Amino acid sequence: MNEPLAERVRPKTLDDYISQHHLVGEKGSLTHQIKKGIIPSLILWGPPGTGKTTLANIIATTSERPFYTLSAINSGVKDIREVIDKAKQSGGLFTSKNPILFIDEIHRFSKSQQDSLLGAVEKGWVTLIGATTENPSFEVIPALLSRCQVYILNAFGKADLEALLKRALKEDIILKRKNIKLIETEALLRLSGGDGRKLLNIFELIVNSEDGESISITDDLVLAKIQKNTVLYDKTGEQHYDIISAFIKSIRGSDPNGAVYWLARMIEGGEDVKFIARRMLISASEDIGLANPTALVMANTTFQAVTTIGYPEARIVLSQCAIYLATSPKSNASYMAIGKAQQTVRQTGDLSVPLPLRNAPTKLMKDLGYGQEYKYAHDYQNNFVEEEFLPEDLIGTTFYKPGVNQRENAIKDFLKNRWKDKY
Length: 423
Known about the structure:
Structural class: alpha/beta
Helix content: 40-55%
Number of strands: 7
Distance between the termini: 79 Å
Largest sheet: 5 strands, parallel
């Protein structure tokens, strides 16, 4: 029998389905609909190995509907239309028994492929169930998303994973032939990363690699057989954005431990070294700014260094920079200043440049007053003379407000000494 363990023990009914109690538990949001057979078009969104395909199969079986399936990896518009035509001919039109069309990895469909589903879903020829590991808000076109309910599946917890293992030992015809003892499960659970399918694949690999019919599963055995823990990290998917978000927020929150942990997650997942360095470059200005101007220099030097040396040594430079940024004083005053200034520009439009500030390269421009009455700061004491540099309609407006930190306190004093009315 070549069928993998995860497929052999795939649940057939809701009673056998493990986890996702918020969806299919006693008071789950889908439980009543499934039992009544009244199923809307829906998107199942969750990490790999959390039971999306299994749930789609159970929904079809329980509601006694024709079930058609496509994989977005190898299906085109022609395949979609052929399946829709079959579904239309299979009966159930305008009834609660519309055929179910299950599309695995629907986020891989192009816009035109997703467009080809709209008519069938809207007219009720099929009930669409899409499975995706990516955020539907980004990956599913709005017209299709508006016609579907989105249900989120969570990664399996420790209890769920242990229940999967025990169920496999109890029900699988091949495993039952062996004397398998689960002495320790910590390594198995950690290596799975909350992915039930991955857990069962690793477990089957361990069992098949051992001679004899009596096998004791320990953490040491598992780690010896599985040399490298493949980190759960999708460089092009939502994990990519979630983890870089956690990384930057750790820096912003002045936590070097959180910053280094999320940095390690990205490094182990094979993230582009320049992507990490670019984000630190942005953070150095957005979150630290003038509270420590050297942070921007440090981040820029880091970007140049890691671009030159690459992995694995780049990890040391990235770590040094991440810790430096996390332990720097913080200020978003520069970030807020440009945001406020841009908002003002959008609201007030193209206000005229005051005549003293205008460039006067020609005689006509000089005759029109361009550049006249401009006061050259270096001609005055302390290289400063009070002058208005904003358009007339914005006189008195303050965009930059220094943050409360040692460096910007000095800047505030500097500005107060010169612009007494503003600061």
